[in-house]
Amino acid sequence: MGKYVGITGNKTAILLVLSVMSVLVLSVLWQGSTAVVSHFEKGHIVMLDPGHGGYDPGAITNQGVYEKAINLQIAQKVKEMLGPSGIEVFLTREEDIDYVPDGVKGKTTKKQIDLNRRIDMAREVNADVFVSLHVNATATGLQSGAETFYHYQSESGKGLAELIQQELIKIPGMNRRITKPGDFYIIKNTSMPAIIVEVGYLSSVKEQKKLQQSWYQEQLARAIAKGIANYFIQP
Ligand SMILES: [Zn+2]
């Protein structure tokens, strides 16, 4: 305590202003250096999957924020950003829908039918990679940060997940999480390298607000787009 007694009033305010300014400068620099501009001669195809939709909201907050809406907003931004690069991008859904026919009962059956349709769509367009977008949530609300999952038997899936994770952790203030192996239905049953990006935690009070804001969604989308572009640049 004694050491800081001298910093009072105005000095504290100046320090605060300076630190806010440096964060702003850093975030501008970060944005400027990661524009996705590479142009690809050879056709590369990406299937982006905004998780959930329709009957299935995904995670929900007490304030009524739905994961499915955030997933779609970010997917649309990734598509826009990759557009000029020459990479062809498809979305498994462009609006708030699911792929479960009327009358189908049972939580697991409905989920599986919905996911199977998305997996088929990726195969039908000959996608080179499949990227499923989600927002995480936990009961404790203590975790935050973006993370990526690949199927534990897929080396190329691991490579793609790592390239995206590398970009995600560059976002100012982002918790430095790592890429993890998993055995989730969607990444297990796709015929091309497939990953899940959990862009953050809706259960985190701090992150929940940012996740709904366009500027933050753009940072996430830019990181995902850059990671995908880097995957195709690899020899
Ligand atoms: Zn989800």
Summarize it.
With 235 residues, the protein is α/β, with parallel strands linked by helices.
Task: Report what the structure shows.
The protein has a six-stranded mixed sheet with strand order 2-1-3-6-4-5, with helices on both faces. Strand 4, helix 4 and strand 5 form a beta-alpha-beta unit. It is of the alpha/beta class and 235 residues long. It has seven helices and six strands, in the order H-E-H-E-H-E-E-H-E-H-E-H-H. It has a single domain (42-233), classed as Zn-dependent exopeptidases (Aminopeptidase, 3-Layer(aba) Sandwich), CATH 3.40.630.40. The protein is 44% helix and 14% strand. The structure holds zinc ion. Zinc ion binds next to loops.
